[in-house]
Amino acid sequence: MKLTSTGPATTTPTTARAPAPTTPAAPPTTTTTTAKAKATAKPADDFVAQRVPVQQPSMATATTGGRGVGGTLSLLRPAVATIGTAAFVPMSTLIERAKTGAPVPQGLLILDTNLGDVEKTAHASWQQATLDHHGPVHGKDKGRGDNSTSQLVDRFDAALRADVVAAKQQPAFVSASVVVEKAAKQHGLTATTAQKEQAAAALLALNLTSISADNVGDGLSWPVWMAANQARVLLDPALRDTIREATVHEDFGVFGGNYLKGVDDVSALPAPIKLQSALFLAYDTALARANVRGSDRVAPDKAEAVAKDVGAAIDALLKDPVLVDKRSGDFFAMVGLALSTVEEHSLVKDASIGDGRGGYAMPVFDTSKLPKELGIFASWAVPPLFGDHSLQMTSSPGADNRRTLILAVPDGRTLPSGKSLLTVLDRLNTLEQERTPAGQQPSSWFGRDVVVLPSQPGSVLTPSDVRSVVEGAGLLSPR
């Protein structure tokens, strides 16, 4: 495996913004094809799709007892909502509303996160409005390929089965049809009248008018972009397939390294993997611009700005396959640079399990010691390529002597014990509570079968503490 590309590489990641004149090649379909946008089409904003007003009831206002600004909570949804796009709502705003016991606002979707401890007492409708594949509350993890983005694509597919005849009886169907027609013209999408009507009915069935997330990987990226471009996604089955394949790589493939086996030139990788790799560079740039370090979880006051940066990059990359090749080449150049220095600078030998001579059963990496130009997602791509270990841990320092620790089984591998990482959650949370200084809130560990990590602002535990839990649970012991 060689991390080489025919495209040029740079040392500093940059977010692609300028639109290019061509569209990426898409898998052939029998219903919808992608073509060059007409020169006369009205250009879209970098992030927000063109909006057509449609009357909808406004969100209720709730009193927060002084917790919000002025003691009053506004969920930022205008009295006149829109069809085909969704307003962004900060997670902190939603948490305050959930604390009041009020039901979830109609049309809201929360991606790849949950309300934390508030969710235990919140109205049950909040769980129904959340797409999150991390347990234990939601318990929706179906294994490899299932994540919040893929679940959202599933919702778009399901919406396309909506009853068109019934949808035509709704006053908003005309507005939805206008949105669909504009999207088709703007993005050069060929669709029959029946397909456009089905897409308009799907827009009404989705009823996706506001969205919230607090992390980039599976929330502030593809999902928020899809929510802002609903008609385009509904009209283009090839694009939905691309998003699905890209998100599988984002949440699984890149954390295993199998996608690079036998690959001598990364420019020969499948198009969705190259697209997602180029987006990793954009994610890292957006996070760096927002001064987010060590994790892709973003504070509420920065989340929307990060989503706009990432959305602009998605727009640019979907228009230009040449740009995809260049940016993915840049990403892999960084990963290759880091891989050449990881053992010398980043490997935490005293916390790792194994001695290096016979290989490491669980190597531990301090990602802050990787080359400084490496972003968060680039640094996460390196550890699986280090060896054939069945378990790994990454550590990155945070504020107040806390750190982001990620314990993970690399994609495509299994623990010798056959156990799930969820078996150590209780012990990690107990230890977290015991070690957290008085007056501070202990982080809560969460995850799924193959990865666990602490909530922000990070864990007070050390990599050696987590190693002890791993050994005590016998995760690396043969069955």
Topology:
Blueprint: E1 33-34, E2 52-55, E3 62-63, E4 72-73, E5 80-83, E6 87-88, H1 91-99, E7 108-111, H2 125-128, E8 130-131, H3 148-159, H4 164-167, H5 173-186, E9 189-190, H6 193-206, E10 210-212, H7 216-220, H8 222-228, H9 230-235, H10 237-251, H11 271-289, H12 300-319, H13 321-339, H14 342-345, E11 353-354, E12 360-362, E13 364-366, H15 376-381, E14 392-397, E15 403-408, H16 425-435, E16 445-448, E17 451-454, H17 463-473
Parallel strand pairs: 6-10, 7-8, 7-10, 13-14
Antiparallel strand pairs: 1-9, 2-5, 3-4, 11-12, 14-15, 15-17, 16-17
Helix pairs in contact: 3-6, 5-6, 10-11, 11-12, 11-13
Number of domains: 2
Low-confidence stretches: 5-80
Strand content: 5-15%
What general form does the structure show?
globular
* Structural class by secondary-structure content: alpha/beta
Overall pLDDT confidence: 82
Number of helices: 17
Q: Over the alpha carbons, how many angstroms does the gyration radius reach?
A: 23 Å
Number of strands: 17
The proportion of residues forming helix, as a percent range, comes to 25-40%
Strand order of the largest sheet: 13-14-15-17-16
Distance N to C terminus: 32 Å
The description of the largest β-sheet is: 5 strands, mixed
